[in-house]
């Protein structure tokens, strides 16, 4: 893969902004951005753990077979002001028509949500115009963009659609629901918001869980503990889903376990990891894994022993919520999907989109005329 650079000038009010646009096609070349990546991210409106250099570099290490197409934009002072972190997937429609599809790095077999372009505050238009220019100038390299689980409250939808408009792309979206709730400054305030029945239910379940002599709530704090916690998470997740006749994420997606084994130690070192469990003797009976980033707790995975005390998962979640509040976390994010279970904890729905965009071509006319989505029913990933 070759990294090439082009100079792009944008004019307004007789002022010339000379932009340098680099398109990185190999992970090794992309490494040159490692020292600047997170600095840009924290000075953007896109700041999310799923867009950090750590998340993306680990993911690329697991998915070394993926080709990347990362657009990086620098201003006239050589300051990094924008990144569009794509990789390229080959898909086939009805096993016949091939498509080169741009997706956001790290979006598959990892639990990632909230994809976005990363643009520096104060330079948004310059960076987005440059990203649009790069996409339009390199249309031979791709057919479509498929960007899933985009948040509708962070400006991500607007940024992506702006680039689509500037690149003269056709696009459509469909709604995607998320769920979460704001955390108060005191745990007692959170408890006050529960119904009387909910409080009584949790007290009963807590008494059942902690009536044993060797039961405790534990947290993974040391690198040496990670493998044991993860092995028991994988096992409990599998047992939880198999008890209702389904496969869990770790069984459905072959490389997800590898991603967790590589990223969890990084998250622990960075202070992002919150991995808690209920231990009975030497065994973990319920476990919840998430990340704390930029004041938010992101609930990623959980598992429990279906033969253990009923309600252990609820008891553990309450412990996690209390821990988050005590640590000053301000939002508990269930991420994608909504359910009555999440609403009972105070979850409120918020909305985003899945977005499909493409250049004007006969192949894309088929997709957009028939309203086909690249989700596996009609289009399948080839590589």
What does it look like?
The structure is a single chain. By secondary structure, the chain is an alpha+beta fold. It has two domains: 205 residues, Aminopeptidase (3-Layer(aba) Sandwich); 146 residues, Gcn5-related N-acetyltransferase (GNAT) (Aminopeptidase, 3-Layer(aba) Sandwich), CATH 3.40.630. Helices cover 34% and strands 33% of the residues. It is built from 13 helices and 15 strands. The chain has a 15-stranded mixed sheet that branches. Helix 4 crosses helix 5. The longest helix is centred in the middle third of the chain and has 17 residues. The protein is globular and about 65 Å long. It starts with a strand and ends with a strand. The N terminus is likely disordered.
Outline the secondary-structure elements:
Blueprint: E1 4-12, E2 15-24, H1 27-30, H2 34-42, H3 53-62, E3 67-74, E4 80-93, E5 97-104, E6 118-119, H4 124-137, E7 144-151, H5 156-166, E8 170-182, H6 187-192, H7 196-209, E9 215-219, H8 226-242, H9 249-252, H10 256-270, E10 273-280, E11 283-293, E12 296-304, H11 312-326, E13 331-336, H12 340-344, E14 348-358, H13 362-369, E15 379-381
Parallel strand pairs: 5-7, 12-13
Antiparallel strand pairs: 1-2, 2-3, 3-4, 4-5, 4-6, 4-15, 7-14, 8-13, 8-14, 9-10, 10-11, 11-12
């Amino acid at each position: 893969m070759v990294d090439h650079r082009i100079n792009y000038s944008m004019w307004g009010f007789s002022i010339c902004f000379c932009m340098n646009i680099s398109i990185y096609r190999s992970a090794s070349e992309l490494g040159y951005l490692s020292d600047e990546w997170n600095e840009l991210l924290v000075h953007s409106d896109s700041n999310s753990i799923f867009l950090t250099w750590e998340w993306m570099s680990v993911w690329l290490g697991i998915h070394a077979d993926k080709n990347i197409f990362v657009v990086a934009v620098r201003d006239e002072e050589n300051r990094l002001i924008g990144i569009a972190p794509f990789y390229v997937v080959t898909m086939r429609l009805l096993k016949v028509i091939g498509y080169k599809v741009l997706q956001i790095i790290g979006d598959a077999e990892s639990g990632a949500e909230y994809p976005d372009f990363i643009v520096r505050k104060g330079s948004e238009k310059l960076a987005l115009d440059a990203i649009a220019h790069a996409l339009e100038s390199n249309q031979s390299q791709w057919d479509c963009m498929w960007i899933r689980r985009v948040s509708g409250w962070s400006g991500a939808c607007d940024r992506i659609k702006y680039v689509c408009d500037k690149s003269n792309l056709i696009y459509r979206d469909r709604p995607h629901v998320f769920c979460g709730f704001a955390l108060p400054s005191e745990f007692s305030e959170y408890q006050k918001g529960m119904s009387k029945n909910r409080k009584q239910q949790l007290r009963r379940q807590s008494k059942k869980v902690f009536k044993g002599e060797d039961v405790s709530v534990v947290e993974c704090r040391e690198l040496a503990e990670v493998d044991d916690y993860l092995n028991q998470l994988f096992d409990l997740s599998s047992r939880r889903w198999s008890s209702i006749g389904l496969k869990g994420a770790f069984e459905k997606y072959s490389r997800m376990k590898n991603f967790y084994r590589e990223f969890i130690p990084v998250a622990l070192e960075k202070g992002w990891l919150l991995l808690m469990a209920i231990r009975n003797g030497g065994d973990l009976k319920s476990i919840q894994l998430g990340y704390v980033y930029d004041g938010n707790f992101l609930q990623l995975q959980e598992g429990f022993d279906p033969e253990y005390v009923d309600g252990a998962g609820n008891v553990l979640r309450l412990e996690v919520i209390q821990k988050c509040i005590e640590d000053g976390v301000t939002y508990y994010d269930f991420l994608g999907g909504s359910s009555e279970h999440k609403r009972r904890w105070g979850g409120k729905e918020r909305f985003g989109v899945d977005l499909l965009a493409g250049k004007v071509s006969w192949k894309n006319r088929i997709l957009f005329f028939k309203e086909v989505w690249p989700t596996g029913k009609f289009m399948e990933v080839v590589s």
